[in-house]
Amino acid sequence: MSKILGIDEVGRGAWAGPMAVGAVVLPERETEADSEYNQFVAELDDSKKLTAKKRRELALEIKKYALGIGIGWVSAASIDKIGLSAALKLAARRAVDQITCDYDETIIDGTIRLVDGENVSTMPKADGLIAAVSAASIVAKVARDEYMARLEAVWPEYGFAGHVGYGTAAHRRAIEEFGVLPVHRRSFAPILKIFGATSAKSSSSSGCSGPDINSSPENFSARGKHCSGVPLLDATRTALSGSLDFASSGDSVTRSSVQVGGEAEDVAAEYLVDRGHEILMRNWRTRFCEVDIISAKDEILYFTEVKYRADGRAGGGIAAVDRKKERQMRFAAEYWLQKHDLTDKIDVRLSVVSLTGRPPKIGEYVKNIGFN
User: CA 217 to CA 23: how far, in whole Å?
Assistant: First the structure.
């Protein structure tokens, strides 16, 4: 038997959230019919036919046995920009690019040839027939469902954990009551029908598009150090070269060059520069999110929240950064990366600078926040 690279997509028809394509290579079946591995393979099936609990259990087993696993992501904003067909192929390429092991052939669920190459074939219902395709379906589904649950933590009124972005009656009611979010696919007919082409087009120009993440979303702060093979700072400067908000480290911290932001942010920016950071942008804001300082050091991109309290006895500014605030910071950083086409393999940190007193003085610097 040959080693098969199985490919399947999840989220193609959703109204909101990213689309994910899974790619998995499994070992060949073992000769012992009732072996533990063969029993595991026998349990694999189309992810839609499995319970959420079973999918999660099998996803852990797939990670245990698989020779290679890849998940390619394309955001709602990118789907709106390049179309569903191109987005499918882009997500598939991103997934396959993560496979480093050898395989003999590629089987894609459905009828669309998502990747090119030798020995590539499509097969309707392959996710219920071919173990590697079933595995790809499961890991992509579990990863996307977990991501949609994270969206619910940010926007609980939309119920993303339940409908995972698909067009249910509850989802429609939430949109009608609360409006379109950056993670909604504004080019999709149901969204246009609810709000009309004019309002959807207006919303899409808000400058805060959905995250376009090319590795599993839970690995946000553990991405690679380069963007498409280009050093981070060079790629970032190129992306920002036409932006009015861009400032080099030479002039970003002088008072005459700061258009917005208070004295505390000036002090925080100076503090970061003194520690080797290059300030790339200050006070980036949209209707939905904001970032105080964006900087780079040692090929790592830092998104820094500045917290100031005149009286430090109340616990200091960092006391205000709880799990909810951390999630808001994380999504703001993802939106910024998407807006500037810097989503591919960038090492990112969320940090906080706390200041107290008058004039403001640095109290504490946490360069990589996170909660268990």
Answer: 16
* Domain regions of the chain by residue span: 1-215, 223-366
Cα separation, 136 vs 332, whole angstroms: 29
Taking the CB of residue 336, how many other CB atoms lie within 10 A of it? Answer: 26
The conformation of residue 16, written as its DSSP 8-state character, comes to: B
- 223-366 belongs to which CATH class? alpha beta
List, as one string, the DSSP characters of 259-321.
-S--HHHHHHHHHHHHTT-EEEEEEEE-SS-EEEEEEEETTEEEEEEEEEES-GGG--GGGG-
One fold for both 1-215 and 223-366?
Answer: no
* pLDDT tens, position by position, 324-338: 788 888 888 887 887
pTM of the complete model beyond 0.70: no
Rounded Cα–Cα distance for residues 206 and 227 (Å):
25
In the chain, the percentage of residues whose pLDDT exceeds 90 is 41
Query: Strands 348-356 and 300-309: what pairing?
Result: parallel
Q: Mean pLDDT in the chain?
A: 79
Instruction: Quote the CA–CA distance of 118 and 160 in Å, as a whole number.
Output: 39
- The CATH class for the domain spanning 1-215 reads alpha beta
Looking at the DSSP bridge assignments, the partners of residue 304 are: 293, 351
**CB contact at 8 A, 1 and 28:** yes
pLDDT tens digits along 119-139: 999 999 999 999 999 999 999
Q: Tell me if residue 241 falls in helix, strand or coil.
A: coil
